[in-house]
Amino acid sequence: MRTIAWLLLVLVVPAGARADDWLVVAPSCGHPAPGGTPRLSLVYPRPGLPAVVHAGELLVARVRLPTPLTPPPGTQQPRALSKWHAELIGRARTAETGMVELHHAAGVVDVRPDGPQSLVYRATIPVPAWLAPGTYDLQVETPGGSARARALVRVLAQGAVPRLMRWPADGEAPPWTMPVDVWLGDAGDGAIPNDPAAAPYLDPTGVVAALRIGGRLHVLGDCSDRYLPYAEQVAAAIEREGLKRAALPAAVAPASHGASPRWRREGERVALDWGADASGPAELDLLWSVDRAARIEASNAELRWHPAGRLGEDELPLVAKVVLQPGGRVILQPGSAAPLEVGLGVRPRPVAAGAPASVALRGAPGGTRVALRFDERRTAFSTAPVEVALRRPGLRPVLGLAIAPDGRRQAVRGDIEVVTARSGGCAVSPKAHGRPRVSWFWLCPLACLLKRRGPRPRGNRLGPQRR
């Protein structure tokens, strides 16, 4: 029986496979019981077990369907994925209307069964690299309907470690502006903030799962899984990823934080103030829709701009991720700076399939960041040149948005010409600058074949000649 369990583990979770979000092990025995008539539901993320993922990485949601998928995923993957879609829904504040929703389309690039004898499937969702850090809803469309996890996906900046805090159970609900990524607490604890822009909560006493936090594996709860024992799944994850098992870190929030930031709007001018008597910084997202430029005055504050939609859309607004230190102040108002005049450069051109291509801005002022989208799975957000390796030959379009430090932005577009790698002195390329190379496509493989053929030994029908 143990051998069968390990075989099932290998079949369901390929060796070396790793998700980028923090959930490493979620045993079937730890999933909530469906109860009643089978219906669509999200097993992860769910209340008490939020998802935490870095921008630019993969979120692997667990979705329970009412009936098995037909055709099964893996055998006809493109057809199986055609009815799967995902969306991350964030929030930002404006001076006129308060909180507004921001919808970010995210594709589902892979679907796999979560385990044997189960209607739970793993849906792999790439998170755009330019997504602003914060709390998001996850909306998933499947062949069996749709489900939405509200305020249960926490997106971190690239390279950041989750900030876990515990608020005293007898205190008032903490402000949503506190710099926290995950609250530790009970699902029924009234101290957990209920603002949809606040950090989600993790219930360590009501969850059976193993989480990857800061290079360590934190094992919560225990249960008896029939086919894949929980302890064996944890041991396999530790060996596969080289993690060290550790207890969940304990953290306590400051006793006081301060009121919400004070802000006001005068025409198109927006001012934000954070009290000097506050005990710590405040974080919030501000939707900014100035057409061309903004004049920024900041003291004890930091701003970072992020696209507020899908690259390629016209008049794409920006979200200003604002971090205010005690006594901090930010003033945003329309500016009169000239529009950006930048271009997108790709080197080398063409590039062999599987080899890295460098994509960078030309003529951009210092500190300009570029958001890039290569395909459903690959995105980037950086001030430096970005390297990407593509395997499918042809002209591959690149969509981008250049964002200057003062809020100016410009859509940029380009393409990467991918050709097949050279082999034996020949290179096969189905297209060059959009025109098919018909003659070389056939003559080059023929030349390579003739080149490899050596002289054949002389002989008769019965065998080689003897001298």
Kindly describe this structure:
- The chain has 467 residues and is mostly beta strands.
- The protein folds into 3 domains: 2-246, Immunoglobulin-like (Sandwich), CATH 2.60.40.10; 262-334, no CATH class; 343-421, Sandwich (Immunoglobulin-like), CATH 2.60.40.
- Helices cover 9% and strands 41% of the residues.
- It contains 4 helices and 33 strands.
- It has helices at residues 2-12, 77-81, 230-241, 438-452; strands at 23-25, 41-44, 51-54, 58-64, 85-94, 98-106, 110-113, 120-126, 134-142, 145-156, 164-165, 182-184, 201-202, 209-213, 216-220, 244-246, 262-266, 269-273, 282-288, 294-307, 318-334, 343-347, 351-352, 356-362, 369-373, 379-382, 386-389, 394-403, 409-419, 431-432, 435-436, 459-460, 463-464.
- The strands form 9 sheets. Strands 3-10-9-5-6 form a 5-stranded mixed sheet, with no helix packed on it.
- The longest helix is centred in the last third of the chain and has 15 residues, at 438-452.
What's a concise summary of this model?
The chain contains four helices and 33 strands. With 467 residues, the chain is mainly beta.
Descriptive terms for the model:
3 domains, disordered C terminus, globular, single chain, Immunoglobulin-like, mainly beta, disordered N terminus, 467 residues, 5-stranded mixed β-sheet, 5-stranded antiparallel β-sheet
